[in-house]
Design a protein that fits this description.
about 500 residues; alpha/beta; Alkaline Phosphatase, subunit A; eight-stranded mixed sheet; 13 helices; about 25% helix; globular
Length: about 500
């Protein structure tokens, strides 16, 4: 009998009987043990991942290393308007601008057609085991190179001429083999325009640091379109040389977008002749100690263990704390017999919370050897960031691709043979593109980025196998992933449109 034919009292008795029973059913109490239905209290499958390890390499675009990767959005998918580079007047180059010498890197004499070319094949013949010269990779330049997503001003704005269009056959690389076995993300962008310093900050705080007292002569000069103004002697064509720009490490309103040194040792700025040797000389304008919230803060708020592990950290601290008159042999040293420690690659060293002498510094900022020791004992923290030293981080100018790639692949294999592997997710990515061209248009973001596309690998027992992940990501996706896994408070700068890496995993139910 339909319920509307019952008396009011009968309806009341029926409802008081059915509603509690319905509540019990929905709670899952009466579901049979073999049921595939999802209980309302089912834990997040991400809970299977107990350790997250982020390995942060340097200065390679996706196309530069993985442009030939099968089934990825690579160089063969680039449109002619993305591959054909334009001069300052908006007209296509007849040939690419010449590649000038820099440091120990010789000039490339070959005349190169206006399109992407193999670095490790004739006529350039630069193997993966040989460093190339460095290329400009700065905040304003990266925006102008991207040119609204057309990516057709890389050669015009580069200080390395046509070198920016070079790419490798990366199939010879050890990490390529891991990408084939696990997950390669081919839609992953560096969070901020520009270089290493700013993108390390976006890895840990999703923010751009500021110094309201930055001197005027350190501030960039921009035009009405937000692009750098040219000096009067700037060439009218990139065929005559790189543009001469009124650049600086700070924006006109005082945000540090290009390399600035940390206020604490180890720093690229020595201590003052008189004063605390733990500090960089304030007269030389290191960034002031920062107080913005980082992923480290949000992890600590929830009592999640974590550490930033940098190769050469202990040696660099000893190096930096020497008397100012003594020579530094570790910081910014590119000799083969010494660690090449890059102080601006250590993002937490910019924050007051991690100042020398603090408990948080001693607890969380650690040497790479401590990572290896903890790994072998199965005693890693829940979240670990690993920063290779400069001689094995793949940065153009002071190291090659192959040695750094092999170094990271060897570290991954060590993790795979460690006690923590069964519950670990490894993310291998690069801080930025290093000035190398990439054809993929960055997604719409904000004032700071995203910038160019970079490689990213996800390696884990829980990762999908042999999978190219086309999900839209940027560097802040790593923060999102950590935040989701451990239920952290969100950092305000993390972009809503960036994925959280969940699609790279096959976690079951």
């Amino acid at each position: 009998m339909p319920i509307h034919y019952l008396t009011a009292n009968s309806q009341l008795r029926l409802l008081t009987t059915v509603l509690p029973l319905l509540s019990i059913i929905l709670s899952g109490t009466l579901l049979p043990a073999c049921s595939n239905a999802t209980r309302l209290d089912t834990p997040d499958p991400l809970g299977k991942i107990e350790h997250i390890i982020v390995i942060y390499a340097e200065n390679r675009s996706f196309d530069n290393l993985y442009g030939l990767f099968p089934h990825a959005n690579g160089i063969n998918q680039a449109l002619p308007e993305q591959t054909t580079q334009l001069d300052h007047d908006g007209k296509p180059f007849r040939v690419l601008p010449p590649i000038a010498a820099k440091g120990t890197s010789p000039a490339v004499d070959a005349v190169l057609p206006n399109r992407p070319f193999r670095l490790d094949a004739p006529p350039v013949n630069l193997p993966l085991s040989t460093p190339s010269r460095d290329l400009v990779h700065s905040f304003y330049q990266n925006q102008e190179q991207i040119n609204g997503g057309k990516n057709n001003k890389f050669a015009a704005i580069s200080d390395a001429g046509g070198l920016t269009m070079g790419y490798y056959d990366g199939s010879k690389l050890p990490l390529w083999q891991l990408a084939k076995e696990y997950v390669l993300a081919d839609n992953f962008f560096m969070a901020a325009y520009g270089g290493s310093y700013i993108n390390h900050q976006w890895l840990v705080c999703a923010c751009t640091l500021q110094d309201n007292q930055a001197p005027a002569d350190l501030r960039a000069q921009t035009d009405a379109n937000g692009l750098l103004k040219r000096k009067t002697n700037s060439p009218t064509s990139a065929m005559q040389g790189p543009p001469q720009l009124l650049d600086g490490p700070f924006t006109p309103d005082g945000y540090a977008v290009n390399t600035r040194q940390p206020p604490f040792q180890p720093s690229g700025i020595k201590p003052a002749l008189t004063g605390d040797r733990h500090l960089a000389d304030p007269a030389l304008h290191p960034l002031p100690a920062q107080t913005a919230k980082t992923i480290g803060d949000t992890l600590s708020e929830k009592n999640i263990t974590w550490g930033w592990y940098a190769e050469g950290w202990n040696a660099a601290n000893a190096d930096g704390n020497q008397a100012p008159a003594l020579k530094r042999t570790v910081i910014y040293n590119s000799n083969d017999d010494a660690i090449n420690f890059q102080a601006h690659h250590q993002p937490f060293n910019y924050y007051q919370r991690f100042a020398p002498g603090t408990a948080d510094r001693a607890r969380h900022l650690l040497d790479g050897d401590a990572f290896l020791q903890g790994l072998d004992k199965g005693e890693l923290p829940q979240v670990a960031f690993y920063k290779p030293a400069g001689n094995v981080n793949e940065h153009p100018g002071y190291t090659d691709v192959l040695s750094g790639d092999a170094h990271i692949a060897k570290l991954v294999e060590r993790i795979k043979h460690s006690p923590v592997w069964a519950s670990t997710a490894i993310i291998v990515t690069y801080d930025e593109n290093g000035g190398f061209w990439d054809h993929a248009a960055p997604p719409k973001g904000d004032r700071w980025g995203p910038g160019s596309r970079i490689p990213a690998l996800v390696i884990s027992p829980f990762a999908k196998r042999g999978y190219v992940d086309h999900t839209a990501y940027d560097t802040t996706s790593i923060i999102k992933f950590i935040t989701r896994r451990f239920g952290l408070n969100a950092l305000p700068g993390v972009r809503e449109q960036a994925g959280d890496l969940y699609n790279a995993f096959d976690l079951g139910s």
